[in-house]
Amino acid sequence: MTGFGRGVAEQGPLRATVDLRSVNHRFLDLKLRATIAPSLEEQVAAKIRGAIERGAVTVSIHVARGPGTTQRIDEAAARASHAALTALARTLGIAGPDLALVLAQPGVVLAADDREDASEALILAAVDTALGQLQQMRAVEGRVLERELAARIDELGRLRQAIETLAAGVTEQLHKKLTDRLRKLLGDDSKVDPARLAQEVALLAERADITEEIVRLGSHLEQAQAVIGGLGASGRKLDFLVQEIGRELNTIGSKSQLTEISSTIVEAKAVLEKFREQVQNVE
Fold first, then answer.
1. d(CA 117, CA 81)
2. Most CB atoms within 10 A, among 46, 169, 170, 277?
3. pTM score over 0.85
4. SS3 state of residue 201
5. Where does the chain show beta strands of DSSP type E?
6. CB 57 within 8 A of CB 20
7. pLDDT digits (tens, 9 = 90+) for 106-153
8. What does DSSP assign to residue 200?
9. Cα–Cα distance, 267 to 157 (Å, whole number)
10. Which is nearest to 48 in space by CA: 61, 63, 35, 37?
């Protein structure tokens, strides 16, 4: 599901801004765009995983400091940056880094009052706010999807009922088709053994019996309707039910002896494909 959320948290000269963007994805694909400590990165990821189960989510984090903030230099970070840049320059055969380039590296110049726990708390607070906005937007989309999916299930239910009605006349239709075929082959004056004809019709009807498939199809549709109207994440459950509904439609289509049922199956598969496309947007 798609959505966007922005959270801002401030304390003194510190200001943390977090942007969350979510687009459709079959699983949870989390991308973090920020230079933060691994422990904080894991906390941010845990918050998002706890709120979102499916979607490609991009997290952008920016921490700014107000004007007039005093600064300090992290000498250990400066030495490490200088060593890394010097080695790179040597490899490339160019002049070594100057002081300005070293100072420009992340983590070298810090605010004098920059406390890691303070900035972490602000970032986590901003993440909470951004998540709240993101979830609100996704909830609006979810309500629209719920109506769309419910309408598709209702349509599939109508087609299932039509198949069931048609299936009730299969034996009579097979009897007529077989009788007409024999008359064409043997002529109108031929004598056809009614008992033998009834036996052949019964065998054909048994092979074409789709009662079990119709019952299972109805069960799958009822489950899908319940999942759509329920609470919590439902995308994976609906993915499974789409496969099961498709399997029953395929079986009915392969066993059907009536053109009318085959045509209805084609229509039902078209509806199911539209349903499948929308399910990919559901968390």
1. 24
2. 170
3. no
4. helix
5. 3-11, 14-23, 28-33, 55-65, 71-73, 109-111
6. yes
7. 778 766 555 555 688 899 999 999 999 998 988 888 888 889 999 999
8. H
9. 12
10. 61
Count CB-CB contacts under 10 A for residue 121. Answer: 16
The token pair that represents 245 in the structure block: 């509904």
Query: Coil, strand or helix: which one is 225?
Result: helix
Taken as a whole, the chain contains a residue count of: 283
Location of structure tokens 């079959």: 26
Residue indicated by tokens 């007409």: 180
Locate 77 and state its tokens. Answer: 């970070």
Contact predicate 153/228, CB 8 Å: yes
What the chain holds in terms of domains, given with CATH numbers, is: 3-67+116-138 (3.30.230.10), 71-103 (no CATH), 143-279 (no CATH)
CA–CA distance, 41 with 50 (Å, rounded to integer):
14
